[in-house]
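Tokens in:
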């Protein structure tokens, strides 16, 4: 076993136009001052990283890594959540998701998809140049509009959907394999990979690709009423990234999992700052440590109530207190007895 690395922080929800949130050196200094040890960097804002340059220039990648290291931090992973979403978009979502892409490809779904795929290939090489071994992303969705089967789904629809999703992702997975980096899908409502069953169907279609791994975020399982601790038992070998985010699910006589089109503060299921929700992180950190998770514990702040500054400050402390420094001793070693094979036979009552 080894001690989980952390605390880390996903920068996406904190980036802005005011200091210290408007440049990589400043935001890293801010994060380090709160006690974080690593940063997960989103890749759609060139003020923080130019993904193409990081893929094509080792010198530039070293400069980015140097900025982070100078603040006393490490890069935990890069993130292409928004680009990954655009690898597979059903036309009904075209208008909503166009904002994730550059203006030059908006209104042109094929050009937008091509751009997103190229971004993922850049991400593989950039991760390699930065010395990273995991990468965070979304899968995108072709079938999400059919998640509640009314009218009933036509026979073969789901199978065809996963075949197409696998067709789009297999070349990307191969690029990550060539670069020695695990591609970690965040299992998330709104994606075609939103629970264990959907992940397994996708995995079958990519022939159990060794790089088709997981970003574990239990908050999304709380609001689906999924057993997020048992999930680790099922998929611990594939979990290579970890978002530490809290959530709560409080159904009422008026709404449940689907939220009744209410705003985030008024939904039955909502995200909370660390320690304010229902996720049992003592069990999670114990379980991941037991299975020798080798990655980072990265705080993702999304809270319907609390200010992000407070969420970040409290989150660093929360993760630090939950990381288990692993032992190199067995607690009952003091009672051990030196034995040999003959002694063992006598204890077993055999000759």
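Residues out:
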């Amino acid at each position: 076993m080894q001690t989980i690395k952390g605390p880390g922080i996903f920068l996406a929800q904190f980036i802005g136009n005011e200091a210290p949130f408007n440049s990589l050196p400043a935001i890293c200094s801010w994060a380090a001052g709160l006690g974080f040890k690593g940063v997960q960097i989103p890749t759609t804002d060139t003020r923080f990283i130019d993904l193409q340059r990081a893929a094509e220039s080792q010198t530039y990648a070293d400069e980015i890594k140097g900025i982070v290291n100078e603040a006393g931090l490490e890069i935990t992973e890069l993130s292409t959540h928004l680009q990954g979403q655009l690898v597979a978009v059903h036309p009904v979502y075209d208008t909503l998701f166009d904002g994730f892409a550059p203006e030059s490809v908006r209104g042109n779904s094929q050009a937008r998809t091509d751009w997103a795929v190229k971004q993922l290939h850049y991400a593989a090489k950039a991760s390699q140049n930065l010395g990273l071994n995991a990468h965070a992303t979304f899968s995108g969705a072709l079938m999400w509009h059919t998640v509640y089967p009314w009218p009933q789904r036509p026979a073969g629809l789901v199978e065809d959907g996963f075949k197409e999703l696998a067709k789009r992702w297999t070349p990307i997975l191969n690029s990550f394999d060539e670069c020695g980096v695990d591609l970690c899908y965040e299992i998330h409502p709104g994606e075609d990979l939103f629970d264990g069953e959907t992940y397994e169907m996708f995995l079958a279609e990519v022939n159990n690709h060794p790089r088709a791994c997981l970003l574990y975020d239990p908050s999304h399982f709380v609001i689906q009423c999924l057993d997020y601790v048992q999930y680790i038992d099922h998929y611990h070998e594939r979990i290579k990234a970890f978002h530490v985010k809290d959530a709560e699910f409080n159904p009422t006589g008026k709404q449940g999992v689907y939220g009744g089109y209410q705003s985030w503060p008024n939904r039955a299921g909502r995200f909370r700052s660390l320690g304010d929700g229902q996720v049992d992180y003592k069990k999670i950190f114990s379980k991941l440590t037991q299975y020798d998770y080798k990655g980072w514990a990265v705080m993702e702040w999304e809270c319907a109530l609390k200010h992000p500054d407070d969420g970040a400050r409290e989150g660093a402390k929360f993760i630090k207190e939950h990381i288990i420094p692993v032992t190199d001793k067995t607690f009952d070693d003091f009672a051990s007895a030196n034995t040999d094979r003959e002694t063992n036979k006598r204890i077993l009552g055999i000759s």
